[in-house]
Amino acid sequence: REGSHSHDEL
Amino acid sequence: MNAFRFLGDMTHLFSVLVLLLKIYATKSCSGVSRKTQELYMVVFLARYMDLFTDYISLYNSVMKVVFITSSAAIVWCMRRHPQVRRTYDKEQDTFRHVVLVAAAFVLALIFNERFTFREICWAFSIYLEAVAILPQLVLLQRGRNVDNLTGQYVFFLGAYRAFYILNWIYRYFTEGHHSRWISWLSGLVQTGLYADFFYYYFLR
């Protein structure tokens, strides 16, 4: 998920 | 998801619920900075723009909707609710929060993970959240009495970011060394701003 640079935190 | 982050999210949710309770139960928003609430609404709108494009988890999506709607509800109450809006002390809430928005935006244009619309909005929301509490802290220091619920609201907001710092430390050691410096630095600044409030809160 880090690769896609999506921010998984609120 | 680790315990620190979950605790942080729950503390953050609780702080918003405490504020909604105070405003709804007492039909009063005295001592609450409307400017801080407006800044938080901008923070959530800028950060949760990916609500409809990136599905991360049910929890993530539900919490985003809750934060956006609750912050909008608080701003609506303070602006439109006939009883509540009368109790807003406009003369006290004088912080020029436009300056905070402009500064966060300029910072986001310079310091971001990638120069894309989404990433600039995300960095903007992180920087703005770090300073969004300032109008509220100024109001608290001006006001004679810090009423319990407002004090508790600010306390939980400070605790939430402190839990997130533990979460970043935990993720640093468990998930490898991804660059989270934007979150780290802003989170430290944000928690630092609360430090003097905690000092007075506990001494009160």
Automatic annotation (TrEMBL), chain B:
Pfam families: ER_lumen_recept. GO terms for cellular component: endoplasmic reticulum membrane. GO terms for biological process: protein retention in ER lumen; protein transport; vesicle-mediated transport. Keywords: Endoplasmic reticulum, ER-Golgi transport, Membrane, Protein transport, Receptor, Signal, Transmembrane, Transmembrane helix, Transport. One of its GO terms (molecular function) is ER retention sequence binding. It is a multi-pass membrane protein. InterPro entries: ER_ret_rcpt. Residues 1-25 form the signal peptide. The chain crosses the membrane at residues 58-77, 98-116, 122-140, 152-170, 182-202. It is found in: Endoplasmic reticulum membrane. Belongs to the ERD2 family. This is ER lumen protein-retaining receptor. It comes from Leersia perrieri. The lineage of its organism: Eukaryota, Viridiplantae, Streptophyta, Embryophyta, Tracheophyta.
